[in-house]
Amino acid sequence: MRALVTGAAGFVGANLVRELLRDGVEVRAMVRKNGDLRNLADLDVEIATGDLTDAGSLAPLLRGCDVLYHVAALYGEGEAAARLMYAINAEGTRNILRAAQTAGVSRVVHTSTIGTIGRPANGENADESVEFNLWATSSHYARSKYIGERIALEMAHMGLPVVVVNPCAPVGKYDIKPSSTGRRVVDYLEGRMPSFLEGGINFIDVEDVARGHILAARNGTVGERYILGNVNLSLKQFLQLMREVSGQKAPNGGDDNPLRQLARRILKSTAHSSQPHLHSLTCDCSKAIRELSLSPTPIRFSLAKAVQWFRDNGYVQPRHSSQPAARTFSAGRNLWNS
Q: Which candidate among 137, 154, 261, 264 keeps its CA 20 to 30 Å from the CA of 184?
């Protein structure tokens, strides 16, 4: 079996590639021209350069592939990045799924986000049945991902065997940017209070996210969404776990009053909300556990892996040094400076 993985060099993509290789699947890794390939170092994969905005270039990438894992997406902030996010996350999704349709792949897994799951009016945790209802307050990233998800589901209705997965906040190894979740870990380790959503966040091991993609291809129902998540954490709970796995106290006395510290970092749009559940990334992720047989790792171990990886690879600056630490990345035998 051969799979094409778009966004293969990214955080989720690189972990998915590793899971597929462990399963004996041949992997064609689609990456951007001049993209950062550190996450794919020493892996037995076929590297294929592709551009989601160039529809005509995508069909050759899918030749001989049985499964498409469409993980690639652009994340940005501000109006300057908005147009490109819609071009890649929405129209780029249409382009690669049409190419998959032409190629006749047996299954497509489209990676969406927990941010496209709506929030119930009664304040309960969201599940896959709740339609996106946050357009007015959401970012261009969430909007572009929602449009891409709708395109995927519409193509499923038209006969393309698409399953959608909605990962929550992944944590673990190979987070080279780092992601917003990884930044929370690094901020804590460097003595800064991490940003958080007042209603809480659902965290999951990135390796479980990768395994969830494979289970979605194997066990998922075409046209369905599956939240890939594990545990909902408040800021206080996150700080406590980080203290336990890192051996460091919470930043700036955060152990005693995390909510006061949070006020300095919380998103402006949510700071004075009377409905914190509308500004959260918590959810009910039981559908994936039940229908896909996803078995999440205890989040304590996942956070510990992330802490170790960030420390080992130079992401954590000395707390009392004016000189920045050299940032390296360890992947097998090689080290890169970045």
A: 137
